């Protein structure tokens, strides 16, 4: 169902559909949008997003769930222009023009929005194995490896910038070598040193934080706890991390082992070796961010999908919009 079903077309010129959108009509037809759940299978996903317009409609609803508001003057009535893959909002008052994809990873991309949707769906639903760039290329049916690599890297950047909340309550902390590529002999000590933490809810892992440790860094445990754990939480770890020096803002409990976080590290190591055949120290943090993001979003796939695309909430647009004063917009003979 289209986001603009039933909206009166006020002009149809040069294959450009111009629709007059006021607050009442927008609110009325937005209620009929069928996005109350997230597709569980690729077939369901393809039925929900069969073409470019359906993807654009979902972007608009996700970013402006109530009403579109002009970021320049705050007015909520506008004109909407749609021509093939070309979509523009224009405010009725100040005539400010913008694309629905401004501020997202899809902005100024030559790749179709539908391809971005397919890539984000694959990345956020492959919880156990993940995808390499080559696997991405094969799954999406792309012919160019560079295109697949670019898609994957931009989505990973969105994962890194998701700004998660700090851990709280009982927090298990652990340090281990993962990745399989790095200084040291094969087996123990091989790979990159990583510190991780999980907080527990009713005895089960709730959220995860991971950070690669620089070879020459000192006090990494203290810095990691400051950045990722709320004050007043209980830190659970073995005796090798030097928790006795922790300030009074955190409580600590020495344990013979941290079973929950150690299991997470075991899964990370298997994932890195099985999917990427090992990762170097230079790139390990990117993969840790990807794993932590998918782990933390495992129960909210819709939120994960919206977050990696940058459409989870309305964002202020940059001042250098490519659509502002666009000559093509002038050719539409604005009413």
Describe what you observe in this structure.
With 335 residues, the chain is of the alpha+beta class. The longest helix is centred in the C-terminal third of the chain and has 18 residues, at 259-276. It is built from eleven helices and ten strands. It folds into two domains: 9-109 and 314-330, no CATH class; 170-291, 2-Layer Sandwich (Nucleotidyltransferase, domain 5), CATH 3.30.420. It has helices at residues 23-30, 42-48, 52-63, 113-125, 133-140, 145-160, 220-228, 259-276, 284-296, 301-309, 327-330; strands at residues 9-13, 16-21, 78-83, 86-91, 97-98, 170-178, 192-201, 204-212, 234-237, 251-254.
What are its keywords?
335 residues; alpha+beta; Nucleotidyltransferase, domain 5; 2 domains; five-stranded antiparallel sheet; disordered N terminus
Write the layout of secondary structure elements.
Blueprint: E1 9-13, E2 16-21, H1 23-30, H2 42-48, H3 52-63, E3 78-83, E4 86-91, E5 97-98, H4 113-125, H5 133-140, H6 145-160, E6 170-178, E7 192-201, E8 204-212, H7 220-228, E9 234-237, E10 251-254, H8 259-276, H9 284-296, H10 301-309, H11 327-330
Parallel strand pairs: 6-9, 9-10
Antiparallel strand pairs: 1-2, 2-3, 3-4, 4-5, 6-7, 7-8
Helix pairs in contact: 4-10, 5-6, 6-9
Separation, N- and C-terminal Cα atoms: 27 Å
CATH architecture of the largest domain: 2-Layer Sandwich
Number of discrete domains: 2
Named CATH topology of the largest domain: Nucleotidyltransferase, domain 5
């Amino acid at each position: 169902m289209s986001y603009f079903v039933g909206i009166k077309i006020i002009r149809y010129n040069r294959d450009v559909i111009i629709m007059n959108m006021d607050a009442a009509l927008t609110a009325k037809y937005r209620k009929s949008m069928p996005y109350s759940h997230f597709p569980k299978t690729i077939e369901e996903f393809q039925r929900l997003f069969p073409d470019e317009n359906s993807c654009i409609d979902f972007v608009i609803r996700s970013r402006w769930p109530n009403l579109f508001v002009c970021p320049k003057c705050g007015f909520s009535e506008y004109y909407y222009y749609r021509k093939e893959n070309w979509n523009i909002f224009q405010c009725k008052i100040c005539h400010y023009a913008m694309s629905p994809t401004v501020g997202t990873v899809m902005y100024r991309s030559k790749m179709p929005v539908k391809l971005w949707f397919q890539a984000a769906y694959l990345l956020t639903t492959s919880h156990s194995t993940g995808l390499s760039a080559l696997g991405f290329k094969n799954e999406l049916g792309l012919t160019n490896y560079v295109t697949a690599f670019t898609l994957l890297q931009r989505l990973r950047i969105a994962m890194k910038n998701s700004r998660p909340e700090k851990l709280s309550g009982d927090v298990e902390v652990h340090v281990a070598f993962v990745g399989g590529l790095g200084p040291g002999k094969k087996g123990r000590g091989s790979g990159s040193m990583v510190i991780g933490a999980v907080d527990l809810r009713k005895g089960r892992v709730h959220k995860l934080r991971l950070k690669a440790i620089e070879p020459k860094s000192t006090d990494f445990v203290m810095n990691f706890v400051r950045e990722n754990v709320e004050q007043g939480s209980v830190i659970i770890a073995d005796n090798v991390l030097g928790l006795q020096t922790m300030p009074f803002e955190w409580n600590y409990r020495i344990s013979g082992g941290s079973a929950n976080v150690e299991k997470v590290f075991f899964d990370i190591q298997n994932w890195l070796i099985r999917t990427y055949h090992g990762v170097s120290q230079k790139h390990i943090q990117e993969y840790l961010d990807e794993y932590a993001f998918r782990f933390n979003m495992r129960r909210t796939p819709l939120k994960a999908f919206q977050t990696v695309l940058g459409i989870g909430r309305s964002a202020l647009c940059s001042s250098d919009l490519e659509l502002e004063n666009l000559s093509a917009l002038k050719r539409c003979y604005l009413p």
